[in-house]
Amino acid sequence: MDSIYWACLLSFMAGACGYIITRFWIMPIRHYRRVKRQLLKGLSEYAQKLPSDPTGKTKKAFSAGRLRDLRRLGVQLVSVHDGELPYWYRLVLVSRKESPQAASEPILRLENMPTSGQARQCIDVIKSRLRATDPRSTQSIAILLCWLILFPAMAEATVTAEAARPPESLTLCNEPVPMGQGDVRERFEREMLLTLGNRTQVLLWLKRSKRFLPYISEELRKAGLPDDLKYLPVIESALMPHIGSSAGALGFWQLMPATARKYGLTVDEHIDQRRDVYLSTPAALDYLKSLHARFSSWALALAAYNMGEEGLDAEILEQKNTDYYRLYLSLETQRFVFKLLAAKLVIAQPESYGFQMAPDDYFEPLRFETVRTECHQETPIRLIATAASTDFKTIKDLNPHLRGYYLQAGSYALRLPPGSTAGFERRFRKMADDYEAQRQQRIYVVQNGDSLSTIAAKFDVPVAALLIWNGINVNKTLYAGERLVVFPRTLNPEQ
């Protein structure tokens, strides 16, 4: 027992030591080098445009990115310890006649790891300071403070109280938000701080925003609804089609199955239109319109969207209060409206909150053409992809409402890559006919003693492929005489 005890203790101590070394030594070094590379890259770009550098030493040192050469020119990269914030970095560009300690006035503050846009901003700041002192000198004073809080292998932004302050007049769907009432401001600032603290998620919101929000905004305009509602799918699904909840909500708008069917969407084992922003948005807007008509307030309509209209109605009846901001609801619903407000402010003005986005930083909008086709029998989606001269993944990405690998018999409006609709129907018909003829020749009759694994081994195919081809579950019991579709890798006449 003693040996086991000591072995466990030593293992724990080794693991703790490994974590400490990685967290407080290896990761800071890697981060330090990454910061150095980013900043030196920006300085190198600037050096190529120096107005006067007779000896070429400055340009050469900047381009090479060698700190020992840059130090001779007055460049220092310093690690600063600040009690609560253990790892901060600053790049100091000073005159040889000045000491780094004497130059303390910050002329630029970077909220995160320098992006390409921020690197350009650094260059502009340095250039303006050089011009203000001596246009011909490359040794003039310029200070660049780069505040970077280091977490494991990642730089996080400093979130300040100022960033979380509400604007003077904040509205939700053209309804004023009563910041002076009760704890409303406290609840708002909490969500702002949490949102700004999760910068990776906000960046993904921003990147996806140009892909989906213009379409949603146009649909809101057509429906006569407030534009602020376009931020609802941002906080519900982060603009991702396949996000689901434990309660059963799914898709961009996180609609429940019953609600989706009520407003005309198809939700079954083959089609789930909640995953498709172009199909689910009109249904979600109809639902929101009915909620607003019922509660006469957009704050209450959003609360009902989150917790269900019957549940909200019961709370209003019990508490005798129709003010969302004074109702005692579930914690999630109490936060819901403020999450939307935070998303609205950050996405509408990302630069104000430290997010520098260049035009090419945004994900491109989806581009496609729509074609209507008829499937006379169960048809593999891969045939659609082949007929459209593309791949299976592209068809699934453009048509996220399609579930599984097959289209059931029926009529479909399918999105295809641009330029692939010409001649699609002719190619698809031929492929569908060939597939059906081939399918009839690929029938295997189950024998006594057969199982999915033995059949898969016989034809040299994965068991998972048998499940896909036949639409069955891995736990299915096979009986002699059953017919399975099998597409062997190589066709043996005896098989």
3D architecture notes:
This protein has 495 residues and is mostly helical. The protein folds into four domains: 131 residues, no CATH class; 201 residues, Lysozyme (Orthogonal Bundle); 72 residues, no CATH class; 43 residues, LysM domain (Membrane-bound Lytic Murein Transglycosylase D, Chain A), CATH 3.10.350. Helices cover 48% and strands 11% of the residues. A three-stranded antiparallel β-sheet has the order 1-2-3. The chain has a two-stranded antiparallel sheet with strand order 4-5. A two-stranded antiparallel sheet has the order 6-7. Helix 1 packs antiparallel against helix 2 and helix 14 crosses helix 15. It is globular, with a radius of gyration of 31 Å. About 19% of the residues have low confidence.
Largest sheet: 3 strands, antiparallel
Mean of residue pLDDT?
77
Biggest sheet: strands side by side, in what order?
Answer: 1-2-3
DSSP, total strands: 13
Class per helix and strand makeup: mainly alpha
Dominant shape? globular
Radius of gyration, in Å, reads 31 Å
* Low-confidence sequence ranges: 49-55, 65-120, 129-157
Looking at the overall shape, the CATH architecture of the largest domain is: Orthogonal Bundle
* Beta-strand content estimate: 5-15%
Question: Quick summary of this structure?
Answer:
This protein is mostly helical and 495 residues long.
Features:
two-stranded antiparallel ribbon; Lysozyme; mainly alpha; 495 residues; three-stranded antiparallel sheet; 18 helices; 11% strand; globular; 48% helix
List the helices and strands and how they pair.
Blueprint: H1 2-47, H2 57-64, H3 67-72, E1 75-82, E2 85-93, H4 116-133, E3 142-146, E4 149-151, E5 154-156, H5 161-164, E6 171-172, E7 175-176, H6 184-197, H7 199-223, H8 232-237, H9 257-262, H10 277-295, H11 298-307, H12 309-319, H13 331-348, E8 369-375, E9 379-380, H14 381-387, H15 392-398, E10 406-407, E11 410-416, H16 424-440, E12 443-445, H17 452-459, H18 463-470, E13 483-485
Antiparallel strand pairs: 1-2, 2-3, 4-5, 6-7, 8-11, 9-10, 12-13
Helix pairs in contact: 1-2, 1-4, 6-13, 7-10, 10-11, 11-12, 11-13, 14-15, 14-16
